[in-house]
Amino acid sequence: MTSAPMGRRERKKAATRRAIADAALRLFLERGYDDVGIREIADAADVSTTTLFKHFPVKEALVFDEDADQEARLLAAVRERPRDQSLPAALREHALRHRMASVDGDARFASFSRLVNDTPPLRDYLQAMWLRHTSALARVIAEESGLPADDPACTALAHFALEAPRTALGHDDPRQAVVRAFELLENGWHGLAPAEG
């Protein structure tokens, strides 16, 4: 199923949103999050502060412009996994690919990660953003496993899978720390879940 092409108005709104987010990130990376004001970002994007706040209700949101896309990729990782791959394994692969990119030598993502990890309000906002996906992920886990939608095991797996990358911060080998966290989830899930279909 393909989505309908965006109309002119939607394209213009998307372009404005992108310009604001790009200006904000550029300024934050150059000078640091705390040293950049909202008015400066609006000026750099050539918009009013009112327009900026229509697109981004809080300053932290300027850094995380792809929340809806992130959720879509997360749910697709579960729904579109190979049939022989467990749910925890699919979530592990998603975490390693989409949340641990700085470990793999992507210089631009590494700079972004340093900005987030060194700025407590951004670090907290990022984690809260990921955890907002818990309910949607738990529903997909229930659908894919055949468990009831309200099964607490589905919610727990969703929550801990979303929390696992944060537990890797500060470890000498963050990727291995994520893998270890998911080994625990895999073993626990294996004992609880029916055969996944």
Features:
10 helices; 197 residues; Arc Repressor Mutant, subunit A; Tetracycline Repressor, domain 2; mainly alpha
Describe it.
There is one protein chain. By secondary structure, the protein is mainly alpha-helical. It has helices spanning 8-31, 38-45, 49-55, 67-79, 87-98, 107-117, 120-131, 134-145, 152-167, 174-192. It is globular, with a radius of gyration of 19 Å. The longest helix has 24 residues, at 8-31.
Brief sketch in words of this structure:
Helices cover 68% and strands 0% of the residues. It is mainly α.
Total helical elements: 10
The beta-strand count equals 0
| Shape verdict | globular
Instruction: Give a quick account of the main beta sheet: strands, pairing sense, barrel closure.
Output: none
From the alpha-carbon coordinates, what is the Rg to the nearest angstrom? 19 Å
- Could you name the ranges where pLDDT drops below 50 across 5 or more consecutive residues? none
The rounded distance between the terminal residues' Cα atoms is 23 Å
Give the percentage of residues in beta strands: under 5%
The CATH topology of the largest domain corresponds to Tetracycline Repressor, domain 2
CATH class of the largest domain: Mainly Alpha
Number of domains: 2
Helix content: 55-70%
CATH architecture of the largest domain: Orthogonal Bundle
Overall pLDDT confidence: 87
CATH superfamily label of the largest domain: Tetracycline Repressor, domain 2
Q: What is the string of helix and strand elements?
A: HHHHHHHHHH
State the secondary-structure class.
Answer: mainly alpha
